[in-house]
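To the team - iron/sulfur cluster complex, inputs and output below.
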Amino acid sequence: MIFKLHIWRQKNANLPGKMVTYTVKEVSDDMSFLEMLDVLNEELVTNGEESVEFDNDCREGICGMCSMVINGIPHGPEHATAACQLHMRHFKDGDSISIEPFRAKAFPIIKDLVVDRSAFDRIIAAGGYISINVGSAPEANSILVAKDHADKSMDAASCIGCGACVAACPNASASLFVAAKIAQFGLLPHGHPERKRRALRMVSQMDKEGFGDCSNHAECEAVCPKQISIANIAYMRREYAKASFTAGWLDPNY
Ligand code: SF4
Ligand code: FES
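Output:
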């Protein structure tokens, strides 16, 4: 297969970027999207040109590193699929494909397709520790967890922190990510002691990082490779409202 690629090239955060067109040949339909970019980069390096920078780690849809917008869609056109698990058989031979970085003020571009998503790390850190000792495996029935809560918590915990929800949202909101993290702990008894503080701090940090608010477009859910439901955002809003009324909201150390 052969493809025409229109790729965003930008040397660093301070210089302007632009789309550059490349032709990549001898692509197998079994290759992943990232392997196709590897073929391009090998050719660029062989010709003495700078390779296209892109983030990746696991290439198994686990780490959330492969942040890129393919043909206008974060992670590309396949439903519930991270860019690293997108295969070239989903494109037609001869297709033109545009590849851009995630665009959001809170995710500044580092180089080419690589963006700085450390804002997500700071939101997680703001959530703080869980004080419950979970050292050794407890007796299974010693802490009862409702099946519905266990399922919802596990679903929320499958968020890989990729940031596609932010890139897809017209407000560049991180609500789906933050809601998933608040729900994953808040729904289990182990996460209850700090649940109010966690909701207040994580939402506050999300605002400080410059993410927008949620206005129910649901674009985030549509592109999420882990199919995180926007029902989590409703849960986050309820948690935040309850915590605002009952926790020490005016105490900055809370
Ligand atoms: S909610 Fe989905 S799109 Fe957003 S960071 Fe988590 S896995 Fe990625
Ligand atoms: S490289 Fe890890 S999720 Fe894509």
